[in-house]
Design brief:
Length: 402
């Protein structure tokens, strides 16, 4: 990870149960070549002792603003100047609030004020604290000032609840920190759909398609590498979840619709890369359908699924920047332009399906991208590489529109 090699990282640790992961984070940062010094808040020391951090970082630990001995060794201004990057993990709701308001009542808050190094926070807190309007407003203010956020992820919490607020894993934090060096999406909330949907016919059969989720998750990795806070709503697919990305698994188009609509208003960017079934069985049979003895066929009545892309693009308030995909087997440019207009997307990325080296089940892809007054071709490349080129274009268009 070249970006971290030789980098001076000041790791701030605030009070929260996730602090037990911070010594592992120090170890991983050092493995990536960084030199690490640790500043603890008083609450953090209730969870992990300074000696642990001293042992893993190989440096004395800092925790007292007014300790004459510590000041004589490496004063807080010197420490603030030493840092190339300040990472606070876990960052509590209280710390986010104090950073927002410029408090300097303890060592860590003072270091953040006294340094011009970039600041990254890996928040960790109870899901309701994270969802609280006060915390959301603090997050938005800090992001506007250029503070970068990694996570939090969703899942089981130490308090016994489930939801968003878990600190990202140390390996994911290190990967996101090492990232691409392009921070133009720092702190932007990016919602992506990926993979196919499955529409049950009976308890054992379903309608679906060939999507593997590879394209959607490649875009998620490219967006996270640019500093985005990325959530993927994924249909059943084998694609791995990239570091620092939150994944929400769903099965049907209706479930995907519900998961997306619940989050779209809180997102800055929405990218619809999933192959969503347009129709589902009007009624899924409760028992396995039996083959009839006569030679007659079986008629299945289908009903329309909600059009997720169209609905997000039509949001009146808090509408994100909307990117759609178009999977085409003929007249690609004509269909894609028409789809963008009909669905109301800001930009549409069209790919051929049913041809070698593009679309579904392929490691490579190529895209024709259309927006209101422009078009560009992204040449055939492995999906992760293509995703970088697409995110570059999306980032430009997104910032131009904002
Ligand atoms: O997953 P991979 O194997 O890597 O393959 C990648 C891919 C081919 C699936 C991907 O690149 C792609 O093209 N995704 C969109 C597939 C699709 O459903 O295209 P469409 O032309 O039918 O739909 C147009 C757009 O509307 C898409 O953004 C789709 O997500 C969205 N849509 C469609 C139907 C629906 N009910 N809701 C939607 O949001």
């Amino acid at each position: 990870m070249p970006k971290l090699a030789g980098c001076h990282i000041l790791l701030g640790v605030t009070g929260g149960i996730a602090a037990y992961k911070s010594p592992d984070l120090v170890r991983r940062l050092r493995d990536a070549g960084a030199e690490v010094r640790v500043a603890l808040t008083a609450a953090a020391m209730e969870f992990v002792r300074p000696l642990t951090f001293q042992a893993v970082s190989g440096n004395p630990v800092h925790h007292d603003l007014l300790d004459p001995n510590a000041e004589a060794a490496m004063g807080h201004i010197e420490l603030a100047r030493w840092a190339d990057h300040i990472l606070v993990a876990p960052a509590s709701a209280d710390f986010m609030a104090r950073l927002t308001h410029g408090f300097a009542d303890d060592l860590l808050a003072t270091l953040c004020l006294a340094s011009d190094a970039p600041i990254t926070l890996a928040p960790a807190m109870n899901r309701l604290m994270w969802a609280n309007p006060a915390t959301r407003a603090n997050r938005a203010t800090l992001a506007e000032r250029g503070v970068r956020f990694i996570g939090p992820g969703e899942g089981d919490q130490a308090c016994g609840e489930t939801g968003a607020g878990r600190m990202s894993e140390p390996s994911d934090i290190v990967a996101a920190l090492a990232g691409s060096g392009d921070d133009r999406l720092a702190g932007q909330r990016i919602l992506i759909t990926a993979g196919p949907t499955r529409e049950a016919i009976d308890p054992v059969r379903y309608l679906s398609n060939r999507s593997t989720g590879a394209m959607g998750f490649a875009i998620a990795a490219a967006a996270a590498a640019r500093g985005g806070e990325v959530t993927v709503v994924a249909g059943p697919c084998p694609a791995a979840t990239p570091a620092g990305v939150t994944r929400i698994d769903v099965e049907t188009a209706v479930e995907m619709h519900e998961a997306v609509i619940a989050r779209a208003g809180d997102s800055d960017l929405f990218i619809a890369a999933a192959a969503v079934a347009d129709y589902r069985a009007a009624e899924a049979a409760p028992e396995k359908l039996k083959k009839r003895d006569d030679e007659g066929g079986l008629t299945l009545t289908l009903v329309r699924n909600p059009d997720i892309l169209r609905e997000v693009a039509a949001l009146r308030s808090r509408r994100p920047f909307v990117v759609g995909f178009a999977a085409e087997t003929e007249r690609l440019a004509e269909h894609a332009r028409d789809k963008r207009r009909r669905k109301g997307a800001d930009l549409i990325a069209a790919n051929w399906v049913g041809r070698p080296d593009s679309g579904f089940e392929s490691e490579r892809n190529a895209l024709e991208v259309f927006w209101e007054d422009g078009h560009t071709s992204l040449a055939s490349a492995p999906k992760r590489e293509l995703a970088d080129a697409l995110m570059e274009l999306i980032t430009e268009q997104y910032h131009a529109k904002r």
